[in-house]
Write a structure and sequence with these properties.
The structure is a single chain. Strand 6, helix 7 and strand 7 (199-203) form a beta-alpha-beta unit. An eight-stranded parallel barrel has the order 1-2-3-4-5-6-7-8, surrounded by six helices. It has a single domain (3-281), classed as TIM Barrel. It is globular. The protein is of the alpha/beta class. Helix 2 (27-36) packs parallel to helix 11 (272-281), helix 5 (123-133) runs parallel beside helix 6 and helix 9 (225-234) packs antiparallel against helix 10. The protein is 46% helix and 15% strand.
Length: 287
C-alpha cells in the first residue's frame, strides 16, 4: 500500500530516524526501531548526512525495515554530489530491495560548498528525473511552512513547491514548525496556489533547550510565546525542561491534529522512550 492511500483513509503516523556513524554499532538503532513498531507506524523515514555521508547505512536501515514487513521504509535522497548515472544505480538498488518510497530533496550544502556539485541544482529536477525514469516510486517532497531560509519570499517558496508537485511529487513532508496558527495560514496559501497534495507534518519533540533553539533558528522557524516560556522557566534545569517540553509537544500534536493534518511525522532523534512518553500522553495506543 502507498502512503497516500493510507492518508485517504485516516491520519497516518510515522517516524524519522537517522543512521549512526560508520564506526558506531547499528544495533541500538535497530532496537529503537523495534520499540517504535509498537505504535504500528505507517512508515519510517531514514536520513543520511550532508554530501551522502552514511548513505550506505541509510540503505541498511531501509532494507531492515522493508524485510521486517512492519512498516513502509522511506529513504531520503538529495541532489548533493549526485550525477544521473549514480542516481539511476541508486534507484535500481532501492527498488531491488523493495524500497519504493522516497523523499527527494535538494539537500543542505556540506560545509564549504556553494552548489550541489551534481547534475541537479534543485529538488524539482530530481523529482522530475525520478518520476520519468522510475515511475514505481512514490515521491515525497519537502516543504517549510515558515519558508525555506534561503527563499527570498513566501511567493517564491510556494512557487517552488508548486513546481515540485507538478514535476511528479505525491505528498508533502514538512520541516518542523511550532507555530500552528502560521501553519494553517500556510496551508490556506498553498491550496490557493493549486497545491493539492496531502501534507505530512513534521514534529520535533522538545527535549533539550540548546538543540530546540538551534534547530528552530537554523531552519528560520519561530519560537512561539508558549515555547519561549518553557525555555525561560526551565532552561537551566534539564530534567524539568524535558518534562515541560514533553507536555508542550503533546499539546502541539493535539493542535496539529485539530488543524486537520493528513499525517503526523515524529522526528524521533533516535530516542524511543521519549517518543513513547509523548505519544502515550497524546492518546496514541501501543500494541
Amino acid at each position: 500500500m502507498k502512503i497516500t492511500d493510507i492518508m485517504k483513509e485516516r491520519m497516518s503516523l510515522s517516524f524519522e530516524v537517522f543512521p549512526p556513524k560508520m564506526e558506531q554499532p547499528l544495533e541500538p538503532l535497530l532496537e529503537t526501531i523495534e520499540d517504535l513498531y509498537k505504535f504500528k507506524p505507517d512508515f519510517i523515514s531514514c536520513t543520511y548526512g550532508a554530501g551522502g555521508t552514511n548513505a550506505g547505512r541509510n540503505v541498511e536501515i531501509c532494507k531492515y525495515i522493508e524485510e521486517g514487513k512492519k512498516s513502509i521504509p522511506v529513504t531520503h535522497y538529495t541532489c548533493i554530489g549526485n550525477q544521473k548515472d549514480n542516481i539511476k544505480d541508486d534507484m535500481r538498488n532501492y527498488l531491488d530491495l523493495g524500497i519504493d518510497h522516497i523523499l527527494a530533496m535538494r539537500g543542505d550544502f556540506p560545509k564549504g560548498w556553494t552548489e550541489t556539485r551534481g547534475d541537479f541544482d534543485y529538488a524539482n529536477e530530481l523529482v522530475k528525473f525520478i518520476r520519468e525514469n522510475f515511475p514505481e516510486f512514490q515521491i515525497a517532497i519537502a516543504a517549510n511552512p515558515e519558508k525555506h531560509i534561503q527563499s527570498p519570499s513566501f511567493d517564491s517558496d510556494i512557487a517552488h513547491l508548486r513546481n515540485k508537485q507538478d514535476m511528479g511529487g505525491d505528498l508533502i513532508m514538512t520541516q518542523l514548525c511550532y507555530d500552528v496558527d502560521h501553519y494553517e495560514w500556510w496551508v490556506d496559501r498553498i491550496r490557493k496556489a493549486g497545491i493539492h497534495l496531502p501534507i505530512d507534518v513534521g514534529v520535533m519533540p522538545v527535549l533539550s533547550k540548546d538543540p530546540t533553539i538551534r534547530m528552530a533558528v537554523s531552519n528560520g522557524s519561530a519560537v512561539p510565546r508558549e515555547l519561549a516560556e518553557v525555555i525561560g522557566k526551565y532552561g537551566d534545569n534539564p530534567e524539568d525542561f524535558k518534562k515541560a517540553g514533553k507536555e508542550y509537544t503533546v499539546n502541539l500534536i493535539h493542535k496539529f491534529m485539530t488543524a486537520g493534518i493528513d499525517g503526523l511525522h515524529i522526528y524521533t532523534l533516535n530516542k524511543s522512550q521519549d517518543v513513547t512518553d509523548i505519544l502515550h500522553a497524546a492518546g496514541f495506543p501501543s500494541y
